[in-house]
Amino acid sequence: QVQLAESGGGLVQPGGSLGLSCTASGIIRSPYAMGWFRQAPGKQRELVAIVTIGNNTNYSDSIKGRFTISRDSAKNTVYLQMNSLKPEDTALYYCHFAPPLTWGQGTQVTVSS
C-alpha cells in the first residue's frame, strides 16, 4: 500500500502565493505518476497538475503560467507552487499517486480578501 502525507495550504489573499507538498511512503514501485487534483464545493474533482509516469508535466489550462509542479523522486515527494492565486482557485486540493491509485486526505486552499 501507498500512503500520502500532504502539507501546505491555508488562507491567502488574491494575488498571493502558497506551496503544497505531498510525500508518498509505503510500497512504492517506479515508475509512478504523482500530482494534484482539486474539488470546489458543488463541482467535480479536476486535474490541477501532474508529473506523469513518463516524467512529463501536465497542467490544467486554468492554472497554466501561475502554478508549477515539481517532483523529487529521491524523496517520493511532489510540490505545487501556486502564484497569482485567484478566488476561483479556492478548493480542497488532493494529492494523487498511481499506480496503485491513491488519494491524499486533501488540504484546503482558500483565496479570499
Structure, described:
The protein has 113 residues and is mainly beta. It is 0% helix and 55% strand. It is built from no helices and eleven strands. Strands 2, 4, 5, 6, 9, 10 and 11 form a seven-stranded mixed β-sheet that branches. Strand 7 and strand 8 form a beta hairpin. It starts with a strand and ends with a strand. 28% of the residues are buried.
Distance between the termini: 40 Å
Number of helices: 0
Helix/strand structural class: mainly beta
Computed Rg: 13 Å
- Binned, the helix content reads under 10%
Question: How confident is the prediction overall: mean pLDDT?
Answer: 96
Total strands: the figure is 11
Order of helices and strands: EEEEEEEEEEE
Give a quick account of the main beta sheet: strands, pairing sense, barrel closure. Answer: 7 strands, mixed
| Overall form | globular
Low-confidence stretches: none
Strand content: over 45%
